Amino acid sequence: MATRRSLLAAGLALPALRPASAQEVFPNRPITLVIPWAAGGSTDVMGRVIAQAMAADLGQPVVVDNRGGASGTLGHSHVARSRPDGYTFLLGTNSTYAIAPHLMRNLPYENRAAFTGVSLVARSAQVLCVHPSVPVNSIAEFVAHARAKPGEVTYSSAGIGASSHLAAELFQAKSGTRLLHVPYRGGGPSVQGLLAGEVAMSFVDMVTCLPFRANGQLKLLGVSTAQRSSFATDIPTLAESGVPGFASSTDVIMLLPAGTPAPIVARLTASLQKALRDPATKERLTTMAVETIGSSAAELDSYWTEELAKWGEIIRGQNITI
Fold it and tell me: Do 171 and 243 touch, CB atoms closer than 8 A?
């Protein structure tokens, strides 16, 4: 009888032990980071740097999955449909999470409700660049040049709805100019068009355009952010150069599918914050002229609301459509 009681007691004790011993520890398999743009672009390179640092902290591979197309919304759609288990997350840019909702009427997901916002990750300034053949050397001179030729001065972009496109639209709205848009199939072709003199002007990422200033292939007239960039302090902002209120940049945020459990969100948030503080990671991003931020979820929510309102006003005011 004592033996049977001992066995029964042991049998009853085993179920109590099972949940703790079998409990899944996150993460216990590879994680996928979706980049909603093609491989090789600045967002892709930035994402791979961050993924490598997070993998070291999480103890599992963070595999980059490039899902470009439809102005970045294909990648967002994939993550919105993914299981909210923390094994799929997204690095989105404002051209998709703040601009595309105003341009694309039939998005296959609800822009805010489909995601759990984690952090405003990083910011990359753009520079208003002109081809050397354009007879200007300052923003004021370019504004005068454009006003003298309404609808004739051309600019390139990475495509309709890209941040380079909307930066130029914001510039026109703030400066009282009217330019001619020449959309290209991506950022690389857009810059090549400018270098070849096919267009007069373009908003180009800081890291891309700085080498072309050094060799005289481009003139860099003004930086797009509200303050001068620490990566090129001699370039004035557009706001201080006669285009008051101008502020634009390529801003990257981290998103998870809506409904991701809070402990998993907290674990990934901590890993991201640690990655952004890592000296080696910061150094690699600095070489890309990227400013790391690492905001809280609440700060991201406020920023997201402001960006949606800002670009919605510009898109409606400039009558931009796809």
Answer: yes
Rounded CA-CA distance 178/122 in Å is 31
Is 50 exceeded by the pLDDT of residue 101? yes
Task: Give me the pLDDT at residue 283, please.
Answer: 94
Q: How far apart (Å, rounded) are the C-alpha atoms in residues 41 and 319? A: 28
CA 320/CA 220 separation, integer angstroms: 26
Q: Enter the DSSP assignment of 142.
A: H
List the structure tokens of 10: 């042991």
62, 63, 89: which is closest to 76 by C-alpha? 89
205, β-bridge pairs: 126
pLDDT in tens, 125-139: 999 999 999 999 999
**Contacting residues for 98 by C-beta, under 8 A, at least 6 apart:** 304, 307, 308, 310, 311
- Please tell me the number of Cα atoms within 13 Å of 47 on its side-chain side: 29
Per-residue tokens: 1? 């009888």
Contact by Cβ (8 Å): 245, 270: no
CA distance 272 to 85: 17
Q: What string of DSSP letters covers 216-255?
A: TS-EEEEESSSS--TT-TTSPBTGGGT-TT---EEEEEEE
Which tens digit of pLDDT belongs to each residue from 10-65?
444 444 444 433 457 999 999 999 999 888 778 899 999 999 999 999 999 999 99
Q: Which of 8, 6, 212, 41 is nearest to 124 (CA)?
A: 41
Length of the chain measured in residues: 322
**Nearest of 189, 193, 218 to residue 206 by alpha carbon:** 218
Q: Determine contact, residues 151/178, Cβ cutoff 8 Å.
A: yes
58's tokens? 């999480």
3-class state of residue 160 by DSSP: coil
137 Cβ neighbours under 8 A, 6+ residues apart? 219, 221
Please give the Cα distance from 204 to 223 (Å, whole number): 10
